[in-house]
Design goal:
With 111 residues, the chain is α+β, with helices and mostly antiparallel strands. It has helices at residues 6-24, 28-46, and strands at 62-68, 71-76, 82-84. It has two helices and three strands; from the N terminus they run H-H-E-E-E. Strands 1-2-3 form a three-stranded antiparallel beta sheet, with no helix packed on it. Strand 2 and strand 3 form a beta hairpin. Helix 1 (6-24) packs antiparallel against helix 2. The longest helix is centred in the first third of the chain and has 19 residues, at 6-24. It binds zinc ion. The site of zinc ion has 8 residues, from loops.
């Protein structure tokens, strides 16, 4: 699951309707496209809202397990998934876990 800001998406879809609406007077295809966008808005609005206890609000920190010269192995404190080389908490490349989505804003603790 990838939580998104549905309100922002709906705003963007309405903006697209505004942009294309002047053309809909003369173009049937544009009218159909606007009708499809309105259906998309209804679909987005009908989606359930995620509870705040799901992964989007889970917090964790990187645990440095091993260092091999340039690269290191880090483990997510929340789901224990290990990453080698691709995650470098020092340069802010990954402020969330690629496996569980935990936000890595807890203070780092080395094991
Ligand atoms: Zn994780």
């Amino acid at each position: 699951m990838r939580p998104i800001d549905a309100d922002e998406l709906v705003k963007l879809l309405y903006k697209n309707i505004e942009i294309f609406e002047p053309l809909s007077v003369i173009d049937k295809d544009v009218q159909n496209a606007i009708a499809r966008i309105k259906c998309d808005i209804e679909i987005v609005e009908s989606m359930p809202t995620v509870e705040q206890t799901t992964t989007s609000f889970v917090h964790g920190h990187w645990i440095k397990l091993d260092e091999d010269g340039y690269d290191a192995t880090y483990k997510c404190s929340h789901c224990n998934t290990c990453f080698y080389g691709v995650v470098d908490p020092c340069n802010d490349l990954c402020n969330f876990c690629l496996a569980c989505g935990a936000k890595m804003d807890e203070s780092e603790v080395e094991e």
